[in-house]
Amino acid sequence: MHRMENVRIPDNFDYSKIVALSSESRGKLEKVRPVTLGQASRISGIRNSDIMLLMVYLQ
To answer: Is 10 strand, coil or helix?
Structure first.
């Protein structure tokens, strides 16, 4: 969890490129535009599996 706080998400990140993300999570991520994975993981309704997909994609 501590590591996720330090993983930054680029400002211009295109969530639509991760086709495996659920549409609900994609919409919430695009609306909120979190700065780090830690922030993204605390968005209500975001699935853990979607955070893991995002983490893999960013690395």
So the answer is: coil
